[in-house]
C-alpha cells in the first residue's frame, strides 16, 4: 500500500504540470460551429475532467481492482469490511478528498469525490458507500459549518485515520427525518445527549459521529442541532443490521445515555441542524447516484465479456439481435444516468441550484442500477444466479438506492415541488 498513489499530493503535482503545458480546458474549438458566446466561454462536455480528477479516477480504479476486488466476495460473506481496505482508502487520500491539503486532505473537487465513489462501486458498493458517507456527509458538513477549532481538531483525523459517521435517522424518523426524539440538554458549558439512532452507516468503525439532537423539543424541528461526538465519550454501538445488500458496510443502532458533549462541539448554530441536514443530504444524493451508476457499470463489465465468449447454437450470446438491443437500451439509460449525476455535481460546484438535478440523478440512477443488474443476470443465464459469479451481489446492492438518503417517492415529491414553482 505504501507504493500506491497518494491522492493528497495530486494538487501540488497538478500545479506544476499545469504550468508546464496547456490546460485541457484550452482545447481549440471549431469557431464556425460555435456562437460568439460559446467561443468565449469554451463550454465543455460533462466528461471533460481536470487533470487531477482524471488521475484520481485512474488511481481509484487501480486501487479498486487490485485491493478491493480480491476481497469483495469474502467481505460480503462475512459482512465485514476488511481493515486493509480501510487503511488503503486512508493511505490513498480517499477519506479526505475535498478536505484542504493543510488539514491532511487532497483539496480536490466535489466531482472528484463523485468519481471516486463511482469507481469503487464498479467493484464493491459497500466500500463506495463507506467512502461516500464519510466524504459527502461528514467531512462536508464539518468543513462548511464547523468552527475553526472543530475543523483543525477533527478534519485531519477524518482525512488520515478516523472513520466518520452521520447520525440522523431514528426509529420514528425515517423519511420524516425531523421527527427525531434524541435530546441534548444544556448543563453548564456542556450538553447531555440522550436517545438513539438506527440505520447508521459506518457506525461500526467510526470514531467520530455527527449527531443530530433537539435542544428544545418545544420548538419542534427548529430545536434540532448538530453535535460532533467522539465514540470514546460513551457512544454505544448496539445491534448491527443483517442486510440484503451492501453487507460489509456496517449499519448499526446507536445509543446515547447521558453523554456529555462540550458546547464547543456544536457544529454551526444552535437550532440550524435541520437546515444543515437538508442541504447536506442534497449533496449526498449525488453521491448515491454515483454509487448506483457504478453498480450498473460493474454489472455490464462482469456480464458482457462472458456473453462474448459463451456460445449457444454456435453463436455468442452477445451477438443475438435480441440481446444486442437489450444491451444497447441499458447502456443508453446508464449513460443518461451518468450525465444526470455529473451535471448535478458540476452545478453544485458552481454554486448553482442543484436540488432538483440531485433528486433526478438519484432517482434515475437507482432505477437503472436495478435494471442493469437484473438484466445482466438474465443475459448470462444460470451462472448469473450463483453467488460465485458476482452479479447477484450487484443485484442485491442496487436495491438500497431506492431507499436511503431519501426514498424514490421522496425524490419524486422533491422534483415535482420544484417543477410546480416554475408554473405558478
UniProtKB/TrEMBL annotation:
Keywords on record: Acetylation, FAD, Fatty acid metabolism, Flavoprotein, Lipid metabolism, Mitochondrion, Oxidoreductase, Phosphoprotein, Transit peptide
Subcellular localization(s) per the UniProt record: Mitochondrion matrix
Cofactor or coenzyme needed: FAD
Catalytic activity: (2S)-2-methylbutanoyl-CoA + oxidized [electron-transfer flavoprotein] + H(+) = (2E)-2-methylbut-2-enoyl-CoA + reduced [electron-transfer flavoprotein]; 2-methylpropanoyl-CoA + oxidized [electron-transfer flavoprotein] + H(+) = 2-methylpropenoyl-CoA + reduced [electron-transfer flavoprotein]; (2R)-2-methylbutanoyl-CoA + oxidized [electron-transfer flavoprotein] + H(+) = ethylacryloyl-CoA + reduced [electron-transfer flavoprotein]; 2-methylbutanoyl-CoA + oxidized [electron-transfer flavoprotein] + H(+) = (2E)-2-methylbut-2-enoyl-CoA + reduced [electron-transfer flavoprotein]
Lineage top rank: taxon: Eukaryota
Domain Acyl-CoA oxidase/dehydrogenase middle: 165-258
GO annotation, biological process: carboxylic acid catabolic process; fatty acid metabolic process
Oligomeric form and interacting partners: Homotetramer.
Protein name: Short/branched chain specific acyl-CoA dehydrogenase, mitochondrial
Upper taxonomic lineage: Eukaryota, Fungi, Fungi incertae sedis, Chytridiomycota, Chytridiomycota incertae sedis
